[in-house]
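Sharing in case it's useful to others searching the archive later.

Someone asked me privately for the predicted structure of DNA polymerase I, so I'm posting the question and my answer publicly. Question first, with the sequence:
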Amino acid sequence: MHNLFLLDGMALVYRAHFAFMRNPILTSKGFNTSAVYGFANTLLDIMDNHGASHIGVAFDTREPTSRHELYPPYKAQREAMPEELAAAIPYVKKLCKAFGIPVLELDGYEADDIIGTLAHRADQDGDIHTYMVTPDKDFAQLVSDATTMWKPGRQGNNHELLDVAAIQNHWMVESPKQVIDILGLWGDASDNIPGVPGIGEKTAKKLVAQFGSVEKLLESTDQLKGKQKENLENFADQARLSKQLATIILDVPMEITWDDLEISARDDEALQALLTEMEFNSIAKRLYGDSFVAGRGHEDTAAVATVAADESPAANLKTIDDVEHKYHLIDDAKDLHRLIKKLSLSKSICFDLETTSLDPRTCDILGIAFSVAAHEGYFVHTGPGSHLSIQMVLDKLTVIFGSKIEKIGHNLKFDLSVLLAHDYPVSGPFFDTMLAHAIVAPDQRHSMDFVSEALLGYSPVKLADLPQNSKGADGDLFGLDDQGDGEKEKTAAKKKGKKKDIKMSLIPVADLANYAAEDADVTFQIAEIIRPQLEESGQQSIYKEIEAPLLPVLTAMENEGISLDIRALKEIGDSLARRIETLSTGITEAAGREFNLNSPKQLGEILFGEMELVEKPKKTKTGQFKTDEQTLSSLAPKHQIVADILDYREATKLKSTYVDALPLHVSKKTGRVHTHYQQLMTSTGRLASNDPNLQNIPVRSKAGREIRKAFVPRDKNHTLLAADYSQVELRVMAALSGDEAMIEAIKADLDIHTATAARVYGVTLDDVTAEMRRNAKMVNFGIIYGISAFGLSQRLDIPRGEASEIIETYFKQYPGVKNYMETTVESAKEKGYVETISGRRCYIRNIDSKNGTIRSGAERAAINAPVQGTAADMIKLAMINVRSLLDKEEADTKMLLQVHDELLFDLHLQEQESLVPKIVKVMESALPLPYDIHCKVETGTGDNWLAAH
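And my answer, the predicted structure tokens:
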């Protein structure tokens, strides 16, 4: 028996492209390879793991089909294909060709018809089992004893095989061919097949189960009643037409044989060239071994997006064996003295620590690498066997680290954190190549390997390739991440390579020295290339005035950590556990039977299948009932069980994410919780907190706020101080738009939501009701995010017409805001980016897309980015200036956390009266806004974070 796999090419590339929509896979030239990458992985999985003997990949063409002739509106409502996806499809076809796999397409026919024809032919010929690889439900009609649907999994889940029994069970039919009848009655919105008004999926299944086919049903309408009978009789022709449109053609005139589809030898030269062009290192290594490095070649070629599909530039990546270099091992006092003298005479030095783990507070330092010139590096060895102790080395290096010499590094915050944890602070100025690259190339990855290969055409030594002695001093064990994390490539996170455990202290000293010195050398060279790029991009001031000075501030905050009251947290956890139990019991009783509350599928079946809370419930692309928060929130006011489910979800999430997890993050060394901040994870520059994330602790719900009770001052001599920017985004919007009415309300220190409500509803400030203010608040913040009438109607649970009228009135009252939105979108289309008040560029992808949904999302991002980005710049500058204030005052007060628009401090009680007004003043003046708009900071203190906030 042969296994024939027929891939629905267009559906698979669409699926792959949108799966990576939030984090697209880009080459160093900026070409979006998400679709190619996702398709390639599916193809390789099938070829390597599932016994494929024959493969073909079917695609649609641009030519109209018989369905368009029969029904011109067929698929007419579909959005234009995203330009990036259209550009990727030739590469998908090229990939198939390199693997020796036929691309199947024929004008006048869809991919469905080609797959249907070949599956039908294989069914008749026998000795072939066909697997139709597609997520498209229409293919269910083709399933037979010899033909199975292969439905790709989502988010890493396994694929699903749908045989005859599965189709019969899901569609409630005797034969898979009856799926056509269901689609004829139900219609298909994605293909613009009309179906019959008033008949949805559930009703269509019942009618086909009862009557067998569309034709039999239309002959038996006398057995029906009411509106259903009327619609079927009035739209009988439309039902027949819809069934015809949904029927997959089984006799496409394809001149192809089974021999043509048999898997044959691949074209390695063409495949390697393509993998190199696409920069698919992981796939290349999977096919050709670790020695093959694909992509990010450094040569004068046009951007990949403009390279023709049949032209593949070579990688031309060099390694340590190809480049002359001078790397030196320093392991005695005399050599160290000479090195320090050399460093002291340099304007800039690059340094890089090698440590036994990624925890700055517990790791040991095995050595420090330096570079002051290209192709030259030094490794000061302080690990096992060295004549130098780390204490002695750091004492000697204090003169360097404390000097005004520029310090270069890749994710310097890690190095600075390790040294600070050892009580050796480092003075600026700093040049962090990871941060600089994130500014000039925000859409790319920022790992050192990637940047080196992209800018230098050089592939550094991989940590996983270094040998390890069988005996040696114990080092901390950690895993090597194959994907990398874009952060500091320190030890495990530093290099891509094999997934294996590495003990840094077991690496032979000579190999570790070359490895470390190379890192410093490469980073020094990267810095020289990125400097002019910062200037050319107009972002030098953003780096020099905001991002670089922020490095030591974040380092100090992370090192400081915050105290956690474990006893209070346990009490909160016990309360949540009781709440979870009560809610679980109530939900089960209301449902009438037990089910898995954590299963969206089972929950959907209870709420919408059995309880029928909604007449026409929404479904996901996989056919499950939607049970996401937005869907349930709209039903909660009307159904207690839904409100209880939302409460249950919140309680279980709070318990698992915070109550159970936070104690695990308490450092054994300090007894405090130390979060880690990422400076440029978002395009707007907002800080992100992780490991643990302390920025996402809910504040709008009572249960969420309770978690903050567990964060406390360090001792009885301190209290927690929260300093929070008040409505900063609205003030920024006023500054960006120059709207006179909004500026007037802010300068008059009016409640902006009440002022907006008065203008929108045409009443006095005193006559504004709570509901009016609530609606105005939603509009004020919604406008910042480019909210639509539909979106506002959903949030306020009002008719779309009423929401549209509110937005229209809003723009009449605040014409400057509307003008800002329109001009910002136009500017983004012209330049490809928008800017904050301080000049940070936020690049906007797909702003001119022909796909309306994608374009609308980009337009909303363009409107919002300058607002969010300016707020982010403001609080970053505030953190820098507050740190300077605390240093100047020689204060015992410490800055602990940044959470959105709020700063949290361990405030010494004796400094409260004198210091708090100064902190407020510094924050309010951090980034002066146009039109003399004043930024307002509100403060609070307390014996826990909740009380302070």
